[in-house]
Design a protein that fits this description.
This is Pseudouridine synthase. 59% of the residues lie in helices and 0% in strands. The chain is mainly α. Helix 4 packs antiparallel against helix 5.
Length: 109
């Protein structure tokens, strides 16, 4: 098991918590078609927060639960910065959490 798994699991929980705190967590899943997007971050079918909830978090949890290799790099913060540049004052804490996630991923195990 990768030694970063416990820290990454904690970070994923913090990201989920922030989505809930901000009211960006949805109880209703997007359509199967929206979730099947092949575009990076599903930008053509999902809001960034939806992508985090319905694609990113489940995929990362599956990696941890199945002891699969972690990605070599993560650029989620860069995407978040682009999204929230259009919405000043929003997403500050989420960006901080995503930055920490990116740093954990880029650190050698």
């Amino acid at each position: 098991m990768d030694t970063r798994f416990p820290q990454i699991a904690d970070q994923l929980l913090l990201i989920e918590r922030e989505l809930r705190v901000q009211g960006w967590w949805s109880e209703q899943s997007p359509s199967a078609e929206a979730l099947a997007s092949v575009e990076p971050f599903a930008v053509d079918t999902l809001d960034f927060e939806q992508w985090l909830q319905w694609i990113f978090l489940p995929r990362m949890k599956a990696i941890l639960e199945n002891d699969l290799p972690l990605p070599n790099a993560s650029g989620i913060l860069a995407m978040a910065e682009m999204v929230y540049a259009q919405r000043p004052g929003q997403g500050i804490e989420l960006q901080r959490l995503l930055s920490q996630f990116d740093q954990l991923i880029s650190r050698a195990s």
